Amino acid sequence: MNKLLDFGRKAMFYVRVLSGYEERRIRSYRLQLQQRLQQAQERKAGIRKVPEQIILSEVRRMVEEMQALNKKLDETEAVIEEYFKPIDKEAEIIMKVQLEGEEKTMKEMMKAMQNQALLEAAEAEKIGCLQNVDTDQHNQEKTSISMHTEVR
Questions:
Q1: Cα gap 140→132, rounded to integer Å
Q2: Distance (Å, rounded) from C-alpha 10 to C-alpha 26?
Q3: 20 φ, ψ to 5°?
């Protein structure tokens, strides 16, 4: 009986092969395998792109955050500059007053030094005149003494 069943199975296989059923079944199976393989490759490529997309989105987010921080920093700097403008103006006024005071002091010192130099020059002139008078008197005394001795 087993032989009969084996013969029946073989006969059915031959009939399927000759009719083309087995070939269509093999081609269908092969097509299914190719489709599954293609889908798997597409999923694999998609999975490979996911980290890149995650990284790119993270980089974009970080850039946006940095731009927002830069904008806030610029706004803060502008507010600080506006806050310190009156103080800067007052400091500038104070500096001008100080410079004017220093210039005035320097001018006064220059005048005092010029006056001092004039006084010293006048004093030196007086001393020079007195020395000339003394030498003249001394010379006159010498001449009068020498004349006095000659007369005797």
A1: 12
A2: 18
A3: 95, -5
Each domain of the chain, given as residue ranges in start order, spans: 2-117
- SS3 call for 36: helix
Q: Residues of 109-144 as b/e, b for ≥16 C-beta within 10 angstroms?
A: eeeeeeeeeeeeeeeeeeeeeeeeeeeeeeeeeeee
Show contacts of 8-16: CB within 8 Å, 24+ apart.
none
- Written as six digits, the tokens of 35 are 């489709």
> Which two structure tokens, joined as six digits, stand for 45?
């490529």
pLDDT band at 150 (very low <50, low <70, confident <90, very high): low
Q: Taking the model in full, what pTM does it have?
A: 0.37
DSSP structure string for 105-148: HHHHHHHHHHHHHHHHHHHHHHHHHHHHHHHHHHHHHHHHHHHH
Least confident of 20-24, 70-74, 80-84: 20-24
